[in-house]
Amino acid sequence: MTPSITPPMLSRGLGSLLHDQHGQGWTDLITGYGAVFLGHCEPKITAALQAQSTRLWAAGRLPVDHQPRVDRLINQLLASDMRQAGLLSTGMEAAEYAMRLAATHTGRQAFIAFERSMHGKSAMSAALCWPNAPLRPGGLHTLPFVDRCAESDILEQLLAVLRTGKIAALFVEPLQGSNGAHQASAAFYEQAIALCHEHGSLCIFDETLTGLYRTGPAFYAERLVGTPDMLIFAKSMGNGFPVACVALGMHIQITPQALPGSTFAGNPLALAVVEATLQRMAELPLTQQVQQLDEIARQTLAPLDPTQVFVRGQGALWCLELGASVNISTLAQTLHDHHLLVTITGRFMRLLPAATMNTTDWHQACELIAQACQAATS
Ligand SMILES: Cc1ncc(COP(=O)(O)O)c(C=O)c1O
User: Fold this and answer.
1) 139 and 197 in contact (C-beta within 8 Å)?
2) Which is the closest atom of ligand 1 to the Cα of 122?
3) 10-38+285-375: CATH homologous superfamily?
4) At 136, is the pLDDT very low, low, confident or very high (cuts 50, 70, 90)?
5) 173: Cβ below 6 Å to ligand 1?
6) Ligand 1 within 6 A of 315 CB?
7) 178 lines ligand 1 (CB under 6 A)
8) Structural domain boundaries of the chain?
9) Which numeric CATH code is attached to 45-283?
10) In the predicted model, is pLDDT for residue 21 greater than 80?
């Protein structure tokens, strides 16, 4: 919500419905910033977490019995030339680990990312491209993205930086989930990957948010002909429990210098949750469910006048860019009054429905948002 509106004090949630401390229901299109992809307190995942909580919580780096099963489940989702390289607790940690892996593999220290992509808020991950990162270490190149530059010009700039021979990796957030849902064409991403490879650099796809079916396929990168060298995915894999993963191409070794090390990374609770979440995902027709959400969003939101509200997105990730004629406080208040929870940051409204959201509820929510946008426009 916008800062001027007091959000509800939440006490519990089930599916796409949250309840506040007074027992009032709220429709949730924030879903823990996209983490709760199968809905709150999904029964099978909750049962797995409860069962694990009576067995073992933390084991350091000692092997635990869930690990091989979780590795297998993750590897089944990946392209055949990739494997799971380690679990962490957050997207930013996974980005840091990916940077260490890329630096040790290439022997290079510099990185490229695209403006206003999100790779985390830790010192290095934010410095890659986050607009107000407090630290700006050297060796990081931020290129414009498709919101303000033609793809061909961006590729030229990319090539110029790659030609320095100093770049360990290019970070790509293929659908910018935190800044307007901008995405480049498949051809652009394929050329960017190819250019990285021609110049001895790696390409890292950050699918912290898009990974695991949010845009339809298991990974956004599946749309492409070329394969990135690393994939980061996180939010949905724990359905709200903090866990993240880095997957690697078979050609990249994990040397002791690059090993992830964190007290809580891949702890037994996280493993139990990931196992239950991925099993539940395999039982559900997620790609079809996300496709239905996509169609409803296109029917209800896309007809909005683009000079007032520009709608971008895919699957279960939508962003409404609110023009200057939209009174954001009025809009936020209307949605609040209807007990609809969305994220509004600056002039962007972000919608992240759970894949399991009832399509009638999603339809109603989208219609309400469209009407509220129109009513708040002068
Ligand atoms: C694409 C992407 N990468 C990285 C992150 C950072 O993840 P975390 O907040 O778990 O550190 C986010 C968080 O929103 C994200 O959307």
Assistant:
1) no
2) 11
3) Aspartate Aminotransferase, domain 1 (3.90.1150.10)
4) confident
5) yes
6) no
7) yes
8) 10-38+285-375, 45-283
9) 3.40.640.10
10) yes
